[in-house]
What does this fold into?
Amino acid sequence: MVRIVRTTDGVRVDATGKLAGRGAYLHDRRECWERGLKGALAHALKTTLNADERLRLEQFMNTLPPEAGTAAGG
It folds into this structure.
């Protein structure tokens, strides 16, 4: 699971899991992030994602495996 947190500086991925602020979790698969970015994530964080935040989250999402059960090498 990957924690996303809303801080006073904006919404960001919380790699440490320890940043102060309202947090939400998404699985570490692209399909979950695609669904989350359609609105559920913003709702859970009680905010509206601005263009810069959305771009950063989409860039992180693009580093994740596309779907459950996808294994490297086959």
